Structure formats: C-alpha cells, structure tokens
Amino acid sequence: MNVQRYARIAGVLFLLSLIAGGFGEAYVPSKLIVSGDATATAANIRNFDFLYRLGFAGFLIESLCDITLALILYALLKPVSKELSLLAAFFGLMAAATFAFAELFYFAPQLIIRGSSSYLQTFSPDQLNALVLLSLKFYGFAGMIFTAYYGMGWIVRSYLIFRSGYLSRFLGVLMAIGGVGFVVRNFALILAPAYASDVLLMLMFPGGLIMTVWLLWKGVDVPKWNAKVNAVSIGGA
C-alpha cells in the first residue's frame, strides 16, 4: 500500500468535497431560496434552472467524494484499530445515505414547477409555489436531522488519528471538536430547537480545512506508519 498516495488522494477528495458541498449546499440555496416567500423562490428556480441543477450536481460530486473518503480513511486508520476504523466508515456511509435522502426534497421542486403530471394540474399556481417552498424546507430539515452520523464518524476517526502516531494529534483534536459540534447540533435540533445554532456546524470548518492542507502538503509520517503496520503484523502473528 502506497500510504502517501492514499493520503494525497484523500486531500484532493477533501478539497473537492469542500468546494462542491459549499457550492451546492450553501451558495446556490442562498441565491435562490427566499425564506417565507414561495412565489419568489419558485420564480428564482424557474429563471435560474441551470444554476439550481448545478447545485444538485455539486451534491453528487460531494457525495461521491465522501463515499470514496470513507474507504480511504478506513485504510489509513486501520493499523490503529481495524474495528473502530470500520465503524467510522459505516457512520460515514450512513451520513451520505441520509443526506442523499434529504436531497430528494431539493430536486422535487423541479417536478412540482412543471406541473405536467395530472395530479399536479389540480393545484393553483400559488399552491404549487407553496409546495415548492415546503419541499425545500423539508430538504433543509432532513439534511440536518441526521448529522449525528457524520459527527460520530469523525469523533471515532479523531480518536484513531490521535492514537496513530503517523498523523498529527492536533488534527485529531480539531476534527473531534467538529464532530462533537455536529452531534450536539443534531440532538439540540430534536430536543431544544432554540439552541440548535448553526455555529455548532461551523466548528468542523477549521479542522476540515487544515486536514485538507495537511494531507496535500505533508500527508502521513511514513516511517511511523510502517512501524505501526509492523507492530500490528507482529501482534497478529
């Protein structure tokens, strides 16, 4: 296994995921969705149809990167603990799957606006616009209601990074803070919505950005990686 190549690929995937996710999940919705105004939101989607579709394409790129990252990070952290690394990968895949479910509500307005189906033709234009905004609100809520899976994946990985010896412990601390923010935000959204601040989600950004730069620039401490792999092999023997 060329571990340094794996680390570089992970860095590239992190970068692509950050860019595509920021575009599809933040930039496009902020430009097209007008909170509380169904008519303006529907008009924006009609007038900027291609931009709206690019937002969904951004999600697809992000999800493809995240799924691939789940495998690569499993391979990078497996020498520390195969079981925990696999658990983190499962959490990551679950996070990708639940967010894919949420994205269905993002794309649904395209079908609603057309109104070509016979059952939609019974709705007035104002009712169709209301359905569009309601679907987008479901998208936003569904995207946030399962973020604990993503957070737990990074909490487990952070522990493995901290214990690895071949990746910076500082990265483990930063990503753990981000993971805890996602988990706390998720439970706050369910149990105490007034305290479900978006700031908790932003705690992941510093760690994610530094992790990306670290993997692209420095990668893995190869001698320490080899020592860990050899120790695991000897222990297994």
What is the typical, i.e. mean, pLDDT? Answer: 92
Gap between N and C termini, in Å?
A: 20 Å
Query: Which radius of gyration do the C-alpha atoms yield?
Result: 21 Å
What is the number of independent domains? 1
Specify the helix fraction band. Answer: over 70%
N-to-C SSE series? Answer: HHHHHHHHHH
Number of extended strands: 0
Query: What is the overall silhouette?
Result: elongated
Strand content: under 5%
User: So how many helices?
Assistant: 10
What class, by secondary structure content?
mainly alpha
Main sheet, how many strands, which sense, barrel? none
Low-confidence stretches: none
Describe this structure as you would to a colleague.
This protein is mainly α and 237 residues long. The chain is built from 10 helices and no strands. The chain has helices spanning 3-32, 38-47, 49-77, 82-114, 125-144, 147-164, 169-191, 199-202, 204-217, 222-236. The longest helix has 33 residues, at 82-114.
